[in-house]
Amino acid sequence: MLRRIFIPSLLTFMLIASSHANSQASSMTYQVQAGDTLSALAKTHLGDERRWREIWSLNPQLRNPNALRAGSSLLLPTSATHNAGQLSTQTHPSREALAQQYRAAVRDEVAGGSLQRFADRRTLATDAQLAQAPRVQANLSEGQAQVMYASNVSSLYNIGERYPVYAIQESHTVTQNQAVHELLRVGEAQLMHKEADRAKFHLMSQAPNRQESTLYVLPSNPYRNLQTSAIREPHSPGNNEMRITRVFHNEPDGVYVLLNQGTNQGVGAGRLAHYYKKDFVSEEQGRLIEYPTSPAGVLLVFKTFENSSFAKVLSAQRIPAPDDRVN
């Protein structure tokens, strides 16, 4: 039986690194051949085709278990890891009790500043929002100063004020017709001169190796930390297809995820939610149907956008991965 483990702050990252190392130590790498299936691999290597879910659980990059790509690599569990794919049988925690159960943990996260630091480093923007944002046309050295020349600078930007500078890190599809861009803060710039929609900024600080990136100067939008009173148990969303889009494993103070729903879908900051692994999926009438299973961990949504949200992993029994279901 899997044990529920509470993971505060930095220990979240330590657990996931340890869990990944343990899974690597008790597994072998296999190159997929044409015609391979998970059930066939389970029968050949584990002696039981019903153990295919153990292989799937070791390979979170595999979104569709029925579509293996020849030449790709999979981790296969050894016979000693027979319990790796078994489901937890412990009682599902009361949804009403989540807020009370995790209120102290959230209070520690807020007081420690981890949510603030993550929100200050990253933001999200749609194509339409970037089209309206000041875009850096040149990033030059002038004497002892580093300056930027930007276009599309609106009247909201004031001479003498400082603004964060961002570079696109990744792009994600969050709805059928809309992409969202993940922006990483790489510096800060002060507006020195402005004429019409063109401006010159003095670059106060910049992360290394960002000269080649397309840079945007965005309006300051300070993150407002959560209040403990805002923490609440999950509410029934209008759409039960909320998913993890991306996992941030390498943050210094915990593990964070990007979700594919936001304020337009009724998701608010302070929401607690479970995430679920794909323990059993069946193809029925041309659709992949996920069957219910025990929650794999608890997330706290702390910053929301129109169709996306940032959340932090508060506790985990199993490592979160892209496409994990959230509710």
UniProtKB/TrEMBL annotation:
Protein name: LysM domain protein
Species: Nitrincola nitratireducens
Segment forming the signal sequence: 1-23
InterPro entries membership: Bact_Kbp, LysM, LysM_dom_sf
Keyword annotations of the record: Signal
UniProt superkingdom: Bacteria
UniProt key word Cell membrane: no
Residue ranges annotated for the LysM domain, each copy included: 28-76
Key word Chloroplast present: no
Pfam families hit by this protein: LysM
